[in-house]
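Thought: the user wants the 3D structure for the chain below. I'll pass the sequence to the structure tool as-is, report back what it returns, then summarize two notable features.
Action: structure_tool
Action Input:
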Amino acid sequence: MIDVKSFLQTTSLSENLSEDQLEILAQSAREKKCRTGQLIIGEKHKINTFYMVASGMVKMFKSSHDGKEQTLSLLGPGDLFGMSAIFSDCIFPANAMTLKKSTLLIFPSTILEDLSENDPAILFNMLSILADRLKESMSLIESLSLMETPKRVASFLLCTSLKKSCHTGTVTELSITQKELSKILGSTPETLSRVLKKLSGENILQVTGRKIRILDCEALEELATG
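Observation:
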């Protein structure tokens, strides 16, 4: 069991909440343990709750009838999902599945109304979170529609793994497999492997399993913005 209240205090959802509001939010949460590869919500399922990752990792994805899969986002501790459904028609727009053993906190959608009755702070927090998620979605659309695979790889490393702070010699470790990364980039594992091999041959990256050493930041940044 986790200390829900203490954990919530570290997240953006609880920002500017009073002590009483935080206590009510914590008391409303239900903890759920999930195994690796467990489907949490399926596309078009109706929900009246929203979720927060307390530990582990969850991926949001869409899949086609022929089995092709596109990862939309990766969610770690403190991240929320399911908010869009409770603000609209309660229909979940994608699939949510764990990538590793995870613990989730599940909140009833009614808690938002209860907490915002006297102080709308939690609604402003939720709007801020949704705005950030929208920016991420716009970046993904841009990447998939306008960028070639090498540029997508460079952009992902700079924006996601390196947090836009690139230094020659920096080593970053992917939190996911290359197979999962290819789904995020809208590519195939084979194409991604070829791109990484090409960037290694050009002395831009050095790839060892999930560890990637940056050999030439300037070249990586030029590729991403190119």
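Final Answer: Structure generated. The chain has two domains: 4-136, 147-225. The longest strand covers residues 49-55.
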